[in-house]
Model the fold of this input.
Amino acid sequence: MVNHEPGHDRVHPMARQPFETDMGDRLTFDLSRPGRIGCILPKLDVPEAELPQDLLRADLTLPEMSQIDVVRYFTALSTLNYSIDTGFYPLGSCTMKYNPKVNDDIAALPGFSRVHPMQDDATTQGALEVLYRLQECLAALTGMDAVCLAPAAGAHGELSGILSVKAYLQDRGEKRHKILVPDSAHGTNPATAAMCGFSVASIRTAPDGNLDIDDLAAQLDDDVAALMITMPNTLGLFEPEICRVAEMVHAAGALMYGDGANMNAIIGRARFADLGFDVVHMNLHKTMSTPHGGGGPGAGPIGVRSHLAPYLPTPVVERDEAGAFRLAAPAKSIGKVGLFHGNFGVLVRAYAYIRAHGLEGLRSVSENSVLNANYIRERLKGVYKLPYDRSCLHEVVFSGSNQKAHGVRTLDIAKRLIDYGFHPPTVYFPLIVDEALMIEPTESEGLENLDAFCDAMLAIAREAEEDPEVVKTAPHYSPVRRLDEATAARKPILRWQPSAEHAPHAKESGGPSIPRGVS
Amino acid sequence: MVNHEPGHDRVHPMARQPFETDMGDRLTFDLSRPGRIGCILPKLDVPEAELPQDLLRADLTLPEMSQIDVVRYFTALSTLNYSIDTGFYPLGSCTMKYNPKVNDDIAALPGFSRVHPMQDDATTQGALEVLYRLQECLAALTGMDAVCLAPAAGAHGELSGILSVKAYLQDRGEKRHKILVPDSAHGTNPATAAMCGFSVASIRTAPDGNLDIDDLAAQLDDDVAALMITMPNTLGLFEPEICRVAEMVHAAGALMYGDGANMNAIIGRARFADLGFDVVHMNLHKTMSTPHGGGGPGAGPIGVRSHLAPYLPTPVVERDEAGAFRLAAPAKSIGKVGLFHGNFGVLVRAYAYIRAHGLEGLRSVSENSVLNANYIRERLKGVYKLPYDRSCLHEVVFSGSNQKAHGVRTLDIAKRLIDYGFHPPTVYFPLIVDEALMIEPTESEGLENLDAFCDAMLAIAREAEEDPEVVKTAPHYSPVRRLDEATAARKPILRWQPSAEHAPHAKESGGPSIPRGVS
Amino acid sequence: MSHPYIPNTDEDRRQILDRLGLDSSDALFADIPEDCRDPRIDLPPQLSEQELVAELAGLAWKNIQPQRPLSFLGAGAYRHYTPSVVSHIINRGEFKTAYTPYQPEISQGTLQTAFEFQSMICELTGMDVANTSMYDGASSLAEACLMAASVTGRRRIALLSTAHVSFESVIKTYAAGKGYEVDVLEPDQVELGPDHACLAIQNPNFFGYFEDVEALSQSAKAAGALFIVSADPISLAMFRPPSDYGADIVVGEAQSLGIPPSFGGPYAGIFACRQDLVRKMPGRIVGRTADVDGRTAYVLTLQTREQHIRREHATSNICTSQQLLALAATVYMTTLGKHGLRRVAELCYHKAHYAAGRIAEIPGFSLPISGTFFHEFVVSGPLPTPELKASLLEKGIIAGYDVSDRFANGLLVCVTEMNSRAEVDRLVESMQEVVR
Amino acid sequence: MSHPYIPNTDEDRRQILDRLGLDSSDALFADIPEDCRDPRIDLPPQLSEQELVAELAGLAWKNIQPQRPLSFLGAGAYRHYTPSVVSHIINRGEFKTAYTPYQPEISQGTLQTAFEFQSMICELTGMDVANTSMYDGASSLAEACLMAASVTGRRRIALLSTAHVSFESVIKTYAAGKGYEVDVLEPDQVELGPDHACLAIQNPNFFGYFEDVEALSQSAKAAGALFIVSADPISLAMFRPPSDYGADIVVGEAQSLGIPPSFGGPYAGIFACRQDLVRKMPGRIVGRTADVDGRTAYVLTLQTREQHIRREHATSNICTSQQLLALAATVYMTTLGKHGLRRVAELCYHKAHYAAGRIAEIPGFSLPISGTFFHEFVVSGPLPTPELKASLLEKGIIAGYDVSDRFANGLLVCVTEMNSRAEVDRLVESMQEVVR
Ligand SMILES: Cc1ncc(COP(=O)(O)O)c(C=O)c1O
Ligand SMILES: Cc1ncc(COP(=O)(O)O)c(C=O)c1O
Done:
């Protein structure tokens, strides 16, 4: 194994010796010893009822472990994760900002965590008030007339929003089958459109990173239901012609759908409604700092202008004249999108986050996230190719094409960053940028961290020229090294099995150039 | 740097690359940037009062950090610690058993954690009831007539107990100036005796590990106030003649002081009062599993027979006829030993621990802790010298003298265990064992962990013969390696300083053979 | 002073601006049309951390939490005891503040625990494969129906009327996209046609009772439709897994596996199916492989189903799901283990039957459904349900869920291991008092 | 089933016994005299985790917590807002479940944070060196007095009468061991003799007021006695450090640095002194050094003062202290930082003065002490203090600590940043109502 030392004293804090225990080889099922248990259960204090023998299952294979072993197993696994709490995580499009601890405490208050979703409204006024206030805050921040908090993530918000658009158009007797999506869009946008029964047409991005307005004009016909557009876009750029675009779209009888996942860039500075959007979804797990949890939970509320308000998913929270709050179904609601009322525990945190800032604080969020991204842009440009050479908003997208000339791919650069103690940026997305490196520092990092990151990026660029092997075989100091992803997909092993044959030992490093980091 | 791979696939989970960031070199003060802060404070909502300019301080040097940096700094430091949650911690005399998480939750209940110690008893009945019930449980487990929970740790219990003895004897007009302490005793025993104004005389341990009764008889005169004896003793052995010893001591007009720090061995199986003790202290952070916290908090309650009850420290908890609980001062109390009523948060956990077991569960604690220690004894004896070759109770003491023949000291063996992923046992204690290795597995470890530990110990013994250098230069895979302890003591740097000169880089490995692990 | 969540100081900002050659950050926002820039926005004022906690704790206090008063409310979210270790583990920053494990080298914590989750769900459901989680049990079921349509190429979805009240609505919402029809069938009137993609049932059903699964499975198979079962995971510790009776897809709500009610979320959707359907599955899947040094390691796999690669051709648009809750469920299942999980199920079973028996003895009360039930059951009383519920609430009891739309004066009562016998007895006595 | 905290199964135990050549574990306990072995012990029955939480939560509910009702109680334990990060950090198992860092290679987390604590305490107190913690502020003061005796070779301890009510008792308890005399002096009648080892004071004192420290320090120096100051660390963020006025040893209670009241503990004692006294200091001290590779590292040092090495010649018998609480205080000080800590002090100062001013305006109330105060102050009212307190408690207010033994109808009232103006106003109005 190659064991080069980065020319820099930062090494990944999780660096391990190469020959340590194969942690992945021992699952709870393997650690299990018959007769152990991790928690004392109460004794039965009522008479036994007769058991329906024919309905009972014969056996159940689950691990048997003592409490100390449960704690040790999961504690040890946790340390194999890179996380915001352990380092800089500039994963583009994901807004990996600091997750305030106090918000976790608040969500865990028994008065919130123990409230049952099926209780009568009269007994849940506090929880409903939180939701109501959050609706109001999000309406204020987007300029929208109505907000629904039910969607559980960004893509769920997209689904809710596009279905609302569909229902609205259907109600007006319109038959429109197409949704326009810029080629820079996040994968969930076209996927959502398709899931809602629309065909998807792609709009080109112009050489300056803006929407190609001619292409848009050409494709805007009366079969178009909506334009789905991300503001600022996934290149970190704000469409300067957005108002004109909205006019064109509206003139064509279509609606403007805003993907607000990147709202961190403009929070407190521009509102989707003012820009001409009819509907927008937000990613509260991004902009509002709720913990990402290794892939959720999130929350993807949508805000709409008044014409779409009757179609919002059920429930929304209303306040009656007496000041009481209640869950309500909008008049022509598309229906429920989930079992209950959304990811309440996430929504509480988002509300707390907003309150910890106030408007000035939120404007400082967007200011600093944008300053930080531009600082990185300035420090790395030249060495890394900047496909759109203008100032950006919250994130900056580079291309690794300079480095590719030395046989070093963007994936290699990403992996090498791990050795330097950083989480890699999002790579190979947006798709329109060759060898894309999408860097979003967020406002949570101070200048000295940006510098350390830029130093590492520049060091890697030097390595790519002088010692490309060390980059191409990175990471060297991570808990595991490159994986055989090809075999994983070709001969999938998707669950523990009593006689689990281990996957064949990889000999080549894996990893195709698929988008990584755009959840 | 030597970089030998242990002949075994377990390596310390905290193993690090040799050249990573020098974490110790950057303290909060160094990370500080003027103008940062980690928490938003409330605004002043009352008129400003006049400030007494002459009393104000000019400046204060404290770090200025953002919240994310606080979280990252301390999170990163935490991972440099070995802990029960991360592995087997067979530190003799310290009873490093599993610390149940639920007990932390219970102690943090606002109904406990927010109660103020100066509230009137009528408003703290729940807290007082917990203390009262714990007193009762500890009285039942020790057979003592009265218990005081005020002492904050074992040594504090010793102080309280010996001062009670002193007051009792003084009250009876006795002038006794000496306390007898076996040569195997923990350092706090003689230190306590001295602190209470007694001279200390040492009693020899016989070759079989028991008290040398002849030596005791010879020294037992009418100047002796008490015999302080640990049950089972620090060799993990139970004094079979304890009842005779107690008779002799009492016949001489002296009292029997029991150090109950090792109570895990006999809990539910023998009571100090029955064995002839007049006073005993317990270490609840050991026997009752309260978290050790890197060196406290602990709790060191004392139990006494009725003749000593009036002398107990203030307060104890009493119950009146109406069933109400109150803090009270025993009639002839030695006084308070601390600011308030003891380490309440620790005491609550101890009570919860007792309730999670019941008597049968506690007997299973002692049974399994003793079985585990004997299993280790059996597997290692022969290879490691067993100075007292008889079955032990909760811990087993070996001597590293076989290995010393190869130039490998007990300290080296301890350090090498780190490479194998284990916390070292207590070493160089008890003092009467040459090159002592004091191993206390506790009942919290399952058989497979004992085996892994024994395998490592045996592998190290082989290494000591075949490749002593690798042992003598261990650890190789820890966050830092051997320290220059000599310079640390000779030229102490005890605080951060703006222009902190770093300690000279060590060239020799440090570490004298002082007792390690007997807190 | 900087904001505690925003490290840059004025000096840091000045240095950045200097490097950018700017006087102020305003220039960076110049692309925002001027008349849209910096609008007036009314937000409530900033709070200090101390005030924030006080404010939110005040709102929390306004809720009646079902700890005290006693609660017998289930209806899709269940009160089970969560061992303390669960929250201690999921609160570790390394788990909580990581994101989707796209870089497996530094995400083995998330990946390996997700693989554990998949494995445990496969064991519980008896299915071959499971994904790492969906949003919740209802959207999971809806996605299963869409998947069935995609697998079969059919456009009708059949759902039993005895399923959870939300299921019909959510399935209809999801089905509206592609314009699928949704038929809601009574259990004893199931007739499927050649255009039915699936038959979806909940077992035990919304009312706690077991369906005649063999017959239903039969009907689905006969029509060439997929048989989709939504099952509560705690019930599966005790009762036959859906694989036993021919399920093609099994979904469910993981909330009962140690996740607090939390006013409805975050929970986690369970999704498992037959091996041969795996490439049609929505959501993330973790597979086992090895690294270049031969170390066992886990990785997101079969990603060519997913939106970030397949875009409009993806099996679903789902991206962020509910990973942390899947972890909570995994720790829960590990802590209780094989015996503990069954024990919990048995406690629920016996206690619910005890409660049902006692309530049925109260004059005026009866059990309108006969058969075996789990977690909950329906009682019909002599009073309109809202009245009964209100009277019991006055006595400090949340008595259950109103199902009088389906059963005369019907109340759905749930009993778990959290309800002691004394609590059940208090419910019974209170019911007696109310109707006396 | 094994107990969850005891992994060995019956099979494990059988294997162990086999290896030991035993039939049962009884033989291992044979050294216990037979008539003392396995006595009858009455303990309450075992509880499941769920029942345990319910039982203890029930007891917790029996306490009146000073959140609501409002509290103005201080008297040695102070209600300050603890930033959430503090508990998140100290609850990490790696900190919480480690022990004394005797093996520095795998204890740098504890050691480095302890070094931070020492450094911050030195900054706050102005002293040269500090240890890693004592049991609490009172025992810390008592140990300081014993140390003074040891340093000076003298056997009399002088303490001001205005110190905390517990201090006198704890010092006397500790002094009894060696038979030292303790003189309790009024602040204006301090006369020390040649056998006085020290003069110990609290500043601000128990009543919240600042002593005439210059004069007191002078008296101590003149007599050749050490000057020992017990100081609240929050007050030190705003007011002159004791080093400024000649303290030789500074002690204090770290509780106000983010540690919850918790019915009196666990807290942590602060202990700091002059460089030249360091080898007489009790407790653990961490020093900075390097490892064999030259990496900066921390280690327990100057251990030749301690019991595990020096046994009866140790400077104290202290061993386990309060490390985790010292860590809590360290995280607290880091989070608030230089400006935050001062801000907290200022908020307390202004709010207490506002409260004092408002109360003094109520007819019948007055402030019996004049001078500058911090955290708390004494009011004298028109009613016996117990009566006043009881009436206010009925109105949901814990009004303070009864000091009527020192001041006629005296009540010690504490106001911190936790008390909003509205709370203070409510106290004032309630007092008005009570005496009306
Ligand atoms: C621009 C954009 N849109 C949509 C999404 C989808 O959000 P989610 O993952 O919460 O479903 C994301 C995030 O992954 C995104 O970055
Ligand atoms: C036998 C024995 N006695 C006394 C003590 C002192 O206890 P503590 O450290 O709690 O003061 C200890 C622990 O360190 C011990 O092992």
Observations:
- Chain D touches chain B through 202 residues (CB under 8 Å).
